[in-house]
Amino acid sequence: MTENDDKACRYHPEELERIDDPDVWVDMDDWPEDAVDWESFKEDVPEGFRYECCDGDANAPPCEIRRHFNWELDPDPAQEV
Prior knowledge:
Number of helices: 0
Order of helices and strands: EEEE
Helix content: under 10%
Low-confidence stretches: none
Mean pLDDT: 80
Largest sheet: 2 strands, antiparallel
Number of strands: 4
Shape: elongated
Strand order of the largest sheet: 1-4
Radius of gyration: 17 Å
C-alpha cells in the first residue's frame, strides 16, 4: 500500500448471512442443516445471502469506504475523539 487516503479501504462492516427464502433455494435437495458448506454456494447463488449492513447480496460492492486502520490500535475508528 502506497497511499492511505479516504477511499483506500472498502469493506462490509457486517457479516454475510444466508437468507431463508424458499424461492431462492427451491432447486436445492433436502439435506441436514449442519451438513452444508454454505461458503461454496455464495458464488452460485449470491441472492441467497445478505449483508446485514446494507441488505446487499453476496455480489454487493462494499458499502463502507474509508482509510485503512488497525483494529487492535483503534477498535472504533468511526468514533470521534
